[in-house]
Automatic annotation (TrEMBL):
It catalyses: [protein]-peptidylproline (omega=180) = [protein]-peptidylproline (omega=0). Belongs to the FKBP-type PPIase family. It comes from Coffea canephora (Robusta coffee). TPR repeats lie at residues 489-522. InterPro entries: FKBP4/5/8-like, PPIase_dom_sf, PPIase_FKBP_dom, TPR-like_helical_dom_sf, TPR_rpt. Its EC number is 5.2.1.8. Residues 63-150, 178-269, 297-389 form the PPIase FKBP-type domain. Keywords: Isomerase, Repeat, Rotamase, TPR repeat. It comes from the Eukaryota. This is peptidylprolyl isomerase.
């Protein structure tokens, strides 16, 4: 094309190097131009006059492929270039040095169908060299019509997969790594030969498993439903490793071939990793209503078909004349995988669950109504949630309802704790606390009871944390209690237990002493004190062994500390050096402790 070659030979200004503002910055921060209005749109003197308004608000970006008509004139009106003379528009990529800088920066402010007049100084046009019909250092003007553009995406940012968006998709998308997609495509090489093509209705594959070539799943993860694109794939993202998909038929071709793929993302089914370890996967076959999910504690009604991986059905509910299943979530009324998945579902949602044995029936052989489930079986549930009723939230309750809900959750937690289900018990106590949170105002008549419930739930949750080896949270919860009741023996006792587990023996001793001041005959606290003494003795013995090893390496003319220990050893009837060091460590520990709390008060 004559006009294209003329523009390409010009002395271009580097867009990235010399323009400080972002493309379109001034336009975005100013009110839209009115037809006939002219405005400077960057700091280098580029102006724009709107001649005809375009469609919508979207504008192209650098890298996009645009189709334009333009007429170029000098400042005196003399025409030097035009695409309209031959009625053949110019197609080029913005920001790639194919046209002058002023045109690039003008066109990125235009909408589809818009016509505008751009005036630009020579620095944004043909510079000191000029061109045919354009003297050096000339200001010029271009009347430009933006006919259309194709969004161009460098998928991997290395030029290996260039995606041109031929038809934009719907709002849904893009698919994720776990999702199942349905695509249609035709793949060709440079000579136009078709090397692979899908059936008329497309084909399905899981994104993470890939298909055809490495480029395909990478491109699909950038697409929306119903989007149509053209891919230009370099050999290292095509078949450079000579690996072909076993499900695709194509003829052989050189490994160095550039692959061109016309691709449509027909649809996709989102797959959710429910448990975060890929052991309960939910493929959404039909989206549910709204945004609210069943969550924990909801009364749900579902229907499902349960089957083994080979398709053997072992249970049905709500289908073929059977009653739908009703259960309360997070109450262990169904297998963990089904329970956890249903808590993520909306009313009317239809999904296919893949449940590994850890969240299913485990190592046991289980006899069901329709079939026997072998040990260590992965099972499938095609499930639809028909309805659910969520528990009332605290803000939906009056004070009395909140207090009763707290008591009920606390009692449920107590039962779970007695049965050794500490994690679920802790969740019940946490939920109980939600109903009596300090952020919720209560009447004066209820404050004492509410505070008592809070303290009880904090203490019980701390007990769960100790069982679950979450010692730092146990310390925090007991400290909350002690902020309210400074001499609460249970809080002191449990915090001391946590401190002993984290080797904070001095803090544990302080809590034990304070607890015994309050209840001198408390048997559990006394036993804990005995355990602490044993733990401290073992710690000192361990330290002594370390120091003994250190001292044994010293010469006879060793340090003063070594000589002093030897003298102490004589005074202690030549006890083993290890034992003497332990005694010294004990003395040091005792002498470094602060006075007991409350001594001054007691003496007065």
């Amino acid at each position: 094309m004559v006009e294209f070659s003329k523009l390409n030979a010009a002395d271009f200004v580097g867009e990235d190097d010399e323009l400080d503002e972002e493309p379109g910055e001034v336009i975005e921060s100013a009110p839209p131009l009115q037809v006939g209005e002219e405005r400077e749109i960057n700091s280098l003197g580029l102006t724009k006059k709107l001649l005809k308004r375009g469609i919508g608000w979207e504008t192209p970006e650098f890298g996009d492929e645009v189709t334009v008509h333009y007429v170029g004139k000098l400042a005196d009106g003399a025409e030097f270039v035009s695409t309209r003379d031959r009625d053949k528009p110019l197609i080029f990529n913005l920001g790639q040095g194919q046209v002058i800088s002023g045109l690039n920066h003008g066109i990125i402010t235009m909408t589809k169908g818009e016509t505008a007049l751009f005036r630009m100084p020579s620095e944004l046009a043909y510079g000191v060299e000029g061109m045919d019909g354009v003297p050096p250092n000339s200001s010029v003007q271009f009347e430009v019509e933006l006919i259309s553009w194709i969004t161009v995406v460098d998928v991997c940012k290395d030029g290996g997969i260039i995606k041109k968006i031929i038809e934009k998709g719907e709002m849904m998308g893009p698919p994720g790594e776990l999702d199942e997609v349905r695509v249609k495509y035709t793949a060709t090489i440079d000579d136009g030969a078709i090397v692979a093509k899908t059936p008329e209705d497309g084909l399905e594959f899981y994104v993470k498993e890939g298909h055809l070539c490495p480029a395909l799943p990478k491109a699909v993860k950038t697409m929306k439903k119903r989007e149509k694109v053209n891919l230009v794939v370099q050999p290292h993202y095509a078949f450079g490793d000579d690996k072909k998909d076993s499900n695709t038929s194509f003829r052989s071709f050189p490994q160095s071939s550039v692959l061109r793929i016309d691709l449509e993302l027909v649809s996709f089914k989102p797959v959710v990793d429910v448990t975060g370890d890929s052991k309960v996967l939910k493929k959404i076959l039909k989206e549910g209503e709204g945004f609210v999910t069943a969550d924990d504690g909801a009364s749900v009604t579902v229907r499902y078909t349960a089957m083994l991986e080979d398709g053997t059905v072992f249970d049905k509910r709500g289908l073929d004349g059977t009653d739908a299943m009703e259960f309360v979530t997070d109450e262990e009324q169904v297998i963990a995988g089904l329970d956890r998945a249903v808590m993520t579902m909306k009313k009317g949602e239809h999904g296919l669950l893949t449940i590994k044995p850890e969240y299913g029936f485990g190592n046991a052989e289980v006899k069901q109504d329709l079939a026997i489930i072998p040990p260590i079986s992965t099972i499938l549930y095609e499930v639809e949630i028909l309805d659910f009723i969520k528990e009332k939230a605290p803000w939906e309750m009056n004070d009395q309802e909140k207090i009763e809900a707290c008591k009920r959750k606390k009692d449920e937690g107590n039962l779970l704790f007695k049965n050794g289900k500490y994690r679920r018990a802790g969740k019940k106590y946490d939920k109980a606390l939600d109903f009596v949170s300090g952020d919720i105002p209560f009447g004066d008549d209820d404050l004492k009871l509410v505070e008592s419930l809070r303290v009880s739930c904090w203490l019980n949750t701390a007990a769960c944390c100790l069982k679950l080896l979450d010692f730092h949270r146990a310390v925090n919860l007991c400290s909350k209690v002690l902020d309210v009741e400074s001499s609460n023996v249970k809080a002191l006792y449990r915090r001391a237990q946590a401190y002993m587990e984290t080797a904070d023996l001095h803090l544990a001793e302080l809590d034990i002493k304070k607890a015994l001041e309050t209840e001198p005959q408390n048997r559990e606290v006394k036993l804990l004190q005995k355990s602490l003494k044993q733990l401290r003795a073992e710690s000192n013995k361990s330290d002594a062994q370390i120091y003994t090893t250190m001292f044994s390496r010293m010469t006879k003319d060793g340090s003063t500390a070594t000589k002093r220990l030897k003298i102490d050893n004589v005074e202690n009837n030549n006890k083993p050096l290890e034992e003497v060091i332990a005694m010294e460590l004990e003395k040091t520990a005792v002498s470094s402790q602060p006075p007991e709390e409350g001594v001054a008060v007691d003496s007065s």
